[in-house]
């Protein structure tokens, strides 16, 4: 029984390592995509100084802030999960904001493209491991973005809520860029 | 009543428009207007320090002091006073230790005071990754022949944000910046062309376009000049070293530590003499050639009688204390023509012959004796005319080999009588034959007057004139069978007779 699990873990490590090696070739593209998303978010108007009272305590996972807590094999899954969750957030109702819809659509398109590029790699990892839910880093990410969704809903998708969420998503992209740079060096 | 119904239908629309207007107004109030902000914040990375500076707009009254507060967007915390930036007169504040999260959005607020009166306040949001103006560190440039050395000056303690910056804003040459760097960092740009001006600029990759980078130029010296200077230095050092070595060698030679001079006697410098001359007699050392001719005479029974000793020229064997005798030493000057080869200037030679006592009827009377006795003891055997009737004896000096057999009946020996010691086995062991010694020594003879030697051996060689006269005398008389050929005697002094 123990030998069976050892074999699966070893197989998972080999697959993720191979995928990680292939993923390194797309890191420059990922970094450029991150910069595009950050620029689009900065174009969305709204000042955070006016929404100091609607601030929330951020519960971003420590492994996103500190790359040393992640393995190189986790970078693909973390990147895919992050793009997917942000895409889901900005797909919600932002009508109470004065944001330019074109800018939001561009943002959604960029997130969708990057997610699709990683989807094939992630599906292969899922097929081999068949246990993506066992990754604690992915679980922490899911919890974090669920809290953001809950915050928006609680504040009825107000402008300040969206400004706070926008500020938090910008911070996510900064940490992701730091993660990719860390593993590329 | 109809008018009242129409009034009711219009009022909801108005309310709706009013609400929309108010709603829009509210949204506009929620959106900050940058142009309405009373101040402008600027965050700059100066020498790896985060410096926040501010400038108020359109103030009629100049503030006397300022107070800075700050908070972050990721936490619902109130504004906090910035340590060291409370009631300050300057318009900037060092926030290196407080603002260290590159992804965070910071909210600074500065309040301007004039005395105790608050003039104005200003608040803004600042993101380090977007709003920080990265100024390059201070650097220096040193020029060499084919390379340029760039020296970056880092502070003693680097901020934690430096690690964030290396991921987001690396320097152009991608220097590995980390918190362990301190002091000066040197970067060398090599493979450059000499005698060329090069300019160097150091800046962050993601720099503010408004910030102009600092450029420092350096002119590379020509390669030949530097090389010639180096070669001149090397030549000077080598020359100085050689001069010192020469001086030291001269001093050591003078003092005798090296190359000691050894003054050998001239005679020991054999290298200048040919091998064939090694056996030759020195020119200054004359050798006397004496020919000993045995003259047959009557056998005398009593050798001690004075008459017999006065009448004959027989060389009476005498012995002195050393056991040497003059027996058999009869010399006469040889005919130069009889000599096959003569290298000596003095034609006199001493010829040693053996007196054969076994044949009394024909007994040779030895005729003398060298005229001169040179200092050296070189003995040379010669072959020459021998006037004796018998074969020359196998005579040998002490310590030397015997003379080889001669095909002729006479042999000639050149003997330095001063160094020749002749020993004869006498019946009377007490009798000591006379000794032919060095010039400084006296010949110890018991009866020096009985000797037939024409030359007296004294402390020095005989005068050449006496020797020549003796030669002439001898040449005239060469008795081979005469018993008494010498009638004249020359007293050379000190008991010796020269005949």
From TrEMBL, chain A:
Any one annotated GO CC term: extracellular space
PROSITE patterns reported in the protein's UniProt record: INTERFERON_A_B_D
Single GO molecular function: cytokine activity
Locations listed in the record: Secreted
Keyword presence, Disulfide bond: yes
Signal peptide: 1-20
Keyword tags: Antiviral defense, Cytokine, Disulfide bond, Glycoprotein, Secreted, Signal
Top-rank taxon: Eukaryota
GO biological process: cellular response to dsRNA; cellular response to virus; defense response to virus; immune response; leukocyte activation; negative regulation of immune system process; negative regulation of multicellular organismal process; positive regulation of metabolic process
SMART domains the UniProt entry points to: IFabd (SM00076)
Family membership: Belongs to the alpha/beta interferon family.
Subunit: Monomer.
Protein name (database record): Interferon beta
Organism encoding this protein: Erinaceus europaeus (Western European hedgehog)
Gene: IFNB1
From TrEMBL, chain B:
InterPro entries: FN3_dom, FN3_sf, Ig-like_fold, Interferon/interleukin_rcp_dom, Type-II_Cytokine-TF_Rcpt
Gene3D superfamilies per record: Immunoglobulins
Compositionally biased spans, kind Acidic residues: 353-364, 479-492
Protein name: Interferon alpha/beta receptor 2 isoform X2
Renumbered residue ranges of the record's region Disordered: 300-412, 453-499
Annotated keywords: Receptor, Signal
Domain of life: Eukaryota
Species name: Erinaceus europaeus
Taxonomy of the source species: Eukaryota, Metazoa, Chordata, Craniata, Vertebrata
Domain Interferon/interleukin receptor, first and last residues per copy: 133-209
């Amino acid at each position: 029984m123990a030998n069976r699990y050892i074999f699966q873990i070893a197989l998972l490590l080999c697959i993720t390592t191979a995928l990680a090696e292939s993923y390194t070739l797309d890191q420059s593209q990922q970094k450029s995509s991150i910069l595009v998303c950050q620029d689009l978010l900065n174009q969305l108007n709204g000042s955070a100084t006016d929404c100091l009272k609607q601030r929330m305590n951020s519960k971003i996972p420590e492994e996103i802030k500190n790359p040393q807590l992640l393995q190189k094999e986790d970078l693909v899954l973390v990147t895919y999960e992050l793009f997917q969750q942000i895409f889901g957030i900005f797909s919600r109702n932002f009508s109470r904001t004065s944001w330019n819809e074109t800018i939001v659509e561009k943002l959604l398109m960029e997130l969708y493209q990057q997610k699709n590029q990683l989807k094939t790699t992630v599906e292969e990892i899922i097929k081999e491991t068949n246990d993506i839910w066992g990754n604690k880093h992915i679980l922490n990410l899911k919890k974090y973005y669920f809290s953001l969704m809950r915050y928006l809903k609680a504040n009825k998708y107000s402008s300040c809520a969206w400004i706070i969420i926008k500020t938090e998503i910008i911070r996510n992209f900064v940490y992701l860029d730091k993660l990719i740079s860390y593993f590329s060096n | 009543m109809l008018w009242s119904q129409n009034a009711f239908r219009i009022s909801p629309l108005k309310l709706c428009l009013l609400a929309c207007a108010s709603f829009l107004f509210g949204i506009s109030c929620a959106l900050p207007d940058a142009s309405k902000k009373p101040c402008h914040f600027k965050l700059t990375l100066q020498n790896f320090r985060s410096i926040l500076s501010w400038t108020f707009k359109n103030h009629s009254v100049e503030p006397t002091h300022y107070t800075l507060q700050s908070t972050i967007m990721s936490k619902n915390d109130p504004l906090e006073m910035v340590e060291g930036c409370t009631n300050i007169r300057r318009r900037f504040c060092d926030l290196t230790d407080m603002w260290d999260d590159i992804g965070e959005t910071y909210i600074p607020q500065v309040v301007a005071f004039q005395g105790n009166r608050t003039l104005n306040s200003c608040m803004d949001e600042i993101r380090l990754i977007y709003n920080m103006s990265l100024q390059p560190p201070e650097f220096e440039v040193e020029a060499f022949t084919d390379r340029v050395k760039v020296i970056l000056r880092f502070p003693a303690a680097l901020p934690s944000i430096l690690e964030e910056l290396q991921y987001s804003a690396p320097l152009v040459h991608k220097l590995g910046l980390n918190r362990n760097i301190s002091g000066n960092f040197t970067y060398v740009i090599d493979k450059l062309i000499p005698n060329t001006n090069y300019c160097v600029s150091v800046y962050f990759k993601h720099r503010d376009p408004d910030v102009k980078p600092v450029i420092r130029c350096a002119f590379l010296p020509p390669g030949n000049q530097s090389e010639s200077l180096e070669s001149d230095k090397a030549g000077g050092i080598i020359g100085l070293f050689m001069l010192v070595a020469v001086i030291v060698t001269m001093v050591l030679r003078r003092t005798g530590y090296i190359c000691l001079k050894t003054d050998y006697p001239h005679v020991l410098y054999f290298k200048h003499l040919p091998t064939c001359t090694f056996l030759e007699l020195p020119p200054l050392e004359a050798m006397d050639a004496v020919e000993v001719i045995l003259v047959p005479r009557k056998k005398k029974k009593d050798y001690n009688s004075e008459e017999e000793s006065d009448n004959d020229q027989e060389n009476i064997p005498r012995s002195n204390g050393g056991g040497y005798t003059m027996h058999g030493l009869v010399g006469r000057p040889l005919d130069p023509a009889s000599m096959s080869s003569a290298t000596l200037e003095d034609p006199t030679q001493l010829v040693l012959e053996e007196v054969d006592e076994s044949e009394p009827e024909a007994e040779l009377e030895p005729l003398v004796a060298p005229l001169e006795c040179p200092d050296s003891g070189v003995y040379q055997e010669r072959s020459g005319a021998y006037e004796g009737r018998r074969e020359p004896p196998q005579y040998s000096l002490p310590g030397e080999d015997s003379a080889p057999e001669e095909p002729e009946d006479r042999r000639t020996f050149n003997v330095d009588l001063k160094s020749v010691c002749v020993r004869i086995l006498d019946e009377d062991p007490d009798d000591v034959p006379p000794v032919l010694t060095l010039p400084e020594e006296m010949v110890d003879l018991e009866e020096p007057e009985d000797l037939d030697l024409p030359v007296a051996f004294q402390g020095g060689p005989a005068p050449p004139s006496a020797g020549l006269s003796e030669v002439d005398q001898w040449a005239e008389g060469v008795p081979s069978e005469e018993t008494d050929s010498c009638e004249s005697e020359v007293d050379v002094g000190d008991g010796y007779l020269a005949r």
